[in-house]
Design goal:
The chain is 43% helix and 11% strand. By secondary structure, it is α+β, with helices and mostly antiparallel strands. A hairpin with a 5-residue loop joins strand 1 (59-61) and strand 2. The longest helix has 33 residues, at 18-50. The model is unreliable at 121-126 and 393-399 (pLDDT under 50).
């Protein structure tokens, strides 16, 4: 009955003249749009009204949803009367010289900016007023769209209606981003000149005001010359607007401004993680940080504390004050960054080595090679022969050499991984080619690696964050994950300004992923990382790979449990030898082990589960062949298409029946080898 009524009404409407139908549709759209605009304006009007009671801040929340820290923990708001008149005039002159004469929007300024844009000139002034800039800073993202500009204009009008010009200027000067993670002129004056903003000189005021247009590019701590050049433009504008005389301008230009060194951070704890998250926010929304916005992050403060302590304790053991370390912990199933440490002390150096430092991974890259080989016809017990006769590679007569100096001629893939054999890695790369390795590495987030013979030995450049994320494909069943720090950003009204769901793409099969897990478990059980079990107390199921670069300049360990993948790098900022025999197992593994033991209480590891598609077969742990009675055994897992060994182990004592069978296999095996030699 209802459908019939609706159909009748629709047909009645459709039978009307076309002009009436168009008019009705346009009217309906206008009603909806008007309602949306009215509701939005009322909500924003209330938000502007609340500014009379003060300005809030952007809050970052931990993974458990609890407040963690503010965008600007060092902000110092001061009344306008405590801000130097020279600084007030400098900002007005260079950013909005008609500030006291417009109603929030400056039609003359907008027209001038549009004209200069059309002519392609280099603008000295923008079209946005101080009020519009404040509206964007407090309520909007930095996205450049027509819709955002319209919202900015409406908010500017609301600000001018609710607040006085001095109140607007005070808010602006206390909230504006000025570079180096510093917000507000009071904090910048203290950090830059060691004085309060009411005490800054004219040249100093001009320098601060000049930073507003491009705070990152003109940061006086990284581009003092550019900042001073910009301050001269500010002084020129002040003279043109009548705030200073020509003599004052010339004297200020001649004055040498002295800038204090970057003050660093007052709080070292979680400094790298917090500044990383702030930078992620700035990259998406610009330098502004509106009040009462909420940023949901992936970080777990308890794990962050554990990471900080592990790095601090680990570096203390070596007694080398300049030695640095980085640690990244990621959820292998989602790519969520759970903890990050970018150096030894955030107060001394804010450079985040965890995601900005690109170093050679050494043998920590080999799992990418082995995963490629397992995806192209190899099994964990495929035999690599002729290792001692590998020819030098490349134009520089580069040749692989094992750290121990041992050169076995034959190894299985598993044995080669356990002892991190360089010749075996080189042979694998020669057999499958470098392209499959590069494709897998790129799919896992390791891009721009060189296509060179030494690729298998980790001579490309990677960051600890990217390499750690790449290892997630092993415990998570074959998926490449994208490292994620921000989950969602909501504005003051609860609207979603940014949504970042977890992303994962399959890059290797579940069978290959599990075979890699067993290989990397063996590295810890009886390979280069056995100290994790025997010395550092990592008893739960886990796997990983050490890495050491030439001349012991970089030490790595990247490993995982079922619930956590963690990478650790140790080295100097300027690559240099860390020490004698500074292997990853000696420098990076202890830090990794301590953190993983602490983290296991928060994220308990589980046993790794083999896919049903794999075939379990008992083999001798020494020969990797079918076991006899005297063999120590283990379970090897074979995927479809893998060659499963049929020969009996020749190294251990078997039963009478096994000895007879082994003799027969040996006889026919010898004949087969002779025939192969003849036909070769």
């Amino acid at each position: 009955m209802l459908n019939r009524t609706l159909n009748i009404r629709f047909m009645t409407w459709w039978s009307r003249p076309l002009r009436d139908r168009v008019f009705g549709a346009v009217f309906a759209v206008l009603v909806v749009v008007t309602a949306i605009v009215v509701v939005w304006s009322m909500r924003q009007g209330w938000a502007v009204y609340k500014l009379r009671r003060g300005v809030g801040d952007t809050w970052f929340y931990a993974a458990d949803g609890k407040p963690w820290f503010r965008m600007d923990e060092q902000r110092r708001d001061v009344p306008l009367s405590d801000i130097s008149p020279d600084l007030q005039h400098a900002v007005i002159a260079v950013e909005d010289h008609r500030f006291y004469r417009h109603f929030g929007i400056d039609p003359i300024g907008v027209g001038r900016a549009a004209w200069r844009d059309a002519r392609g000139g280099d603008r000295m002034e923008g079209g946005s007023t101080l009020t519009q800039q404040l509206a964007r800073t407090l309520f909007l993202s930095n996205k450049r769209t027509i819709g955002r500009k319209a919202q900015e204009a409406v908010l500017a009008l609301l600000l001018e209606q609710e607040l006085t010009k001095p109140q607007i200027l005070e808010l602006y000067l206390n909230r504006i981003y000025l570079s180096g993670g510093v917000y507000g002129v009071e904090s910048m004056a203290r950090d830059l000149f060691g004085k309060r903003t009411r005490d800054v000189t004219l040249p100093e005021a001009a320098l601060i005001a000049g930073l507003i247009r491009a705070p990152s590019a003109l940061s006086p701590w990284s581009n003092l010359e550019g900042a001073i050049d910009r301050s001269h433009v500010v002084l020129q504008r002040m003279r043109e607007e009548g705030f200073i005389t020509a003599d004052q301008e010339r004297a200020a230009v001649r004055t040498k401004v002295r800038v204090r060194p970057y003050p660093g951070a007052e709080q070292a704890r979680a400094g790298y993680a917090k500044e990383f998250l702030r930078q992620q926010f700035r990259d998406r929304f610009g330098g502004d940080h509106p009040p009462d916005w909420s940023v949901m992050t992936t970080f777990v403060p308890e794990l962050q504390d554990a990471a900080e302590r592990s790095v601090e304790d680990g570096l203390r053991r070596f007694g080398q004050p300049q030695l640095q370390a980085a640690l990244v912990a990621i959820d292998p199933s989602t790519g969520d960054i759970l903890a990050m440490v970018g150096g030894r002390d955030f107060r001394q150096s804010q450079f985040n080595r965890a995601y900005r430092s690109r170093r050679q991974p050494g043998s920590a890259f080999k799992p990418l090679l082995y995963a490629s080989a397992l995806s192209h016809g190899f099994s964990p017990v495929s035999v690599l022969e002729g290792l001692s006769s590998i020819a030098p590679q490349g134009p520089d007569e580069w040749a692989p050499r094992n750290a121990t100096g041992d050169d076995p001629d034959t190894l299985t893939v598993r044995a080669a991984m356990i002892e991190s054999n360089n010749r075996a890695a080189t042979m694998l790369q020669q057999k499958i080619g470098s392209r499959p390795v590069l494709r897998l590495a790129s799919s896992a987030g390791l891009r721009d690696l060189p296509d060179v013979p030494s690729l298998s030995l980790g001579t490309g450049l990677v960051t600890p964050l990217d390499l750690t994320a790449a290892f997630a494909m092993f415990p998570n069943g074959g998926f490449a994950v994208q490292p994620r720090a921000l989950v969602r950003v909501t504005d003051a009204d609860g609207g979603v300004a940014y949504d970042n769901p977890a992303r994962a793409d399959r890059v290797i099969s579940p069978d290959v992923a599990y075979q890699m897990v067993t290989l990397l478990e063996d590295v810890m059980d009886r390979g280069t990382a056995t100290a994790a079990r025997t010395t550092y107390g990592v008893r739960f199921p886990s796997g990983g790979k050490t890495g050491t670069t030439d001349e012991f300049k970089d030490a790595w360990f990247v490993g995982f449990s079922s619930s956590l993948v963690t990478g650790v790098w140790v080295g100097f900022d300027q690559p240099a030898t860390i020490g004698r025999e500074a292997y990853g197992s000696r420098y990076a593994l202890p830090i990794w082990s301590e953190f993983m033991r602490r983290a296991a209480r928060r994220r308990p590891p589980r046993e790794f589960e083999a896919p049903d598609t794999l075939r379990p077969v008992a083999l001798c742990r020494v020969s990797y062949l079918r076991p006899v009675e005297g063999c120590p055994t283990y379970t090897e897992y074979f995927k479809e298409g893998d060659d499963v060994p049929s020969r009996l182990c020749p190294l251990h004592q078997g039963s009478v029946k096994q000895e007879i069978k082994r003799a027969v296999q040996g006889f026919f095996g010898a004949i087969g080898r002779k025939l192969r030699g003849i036909f070769r």
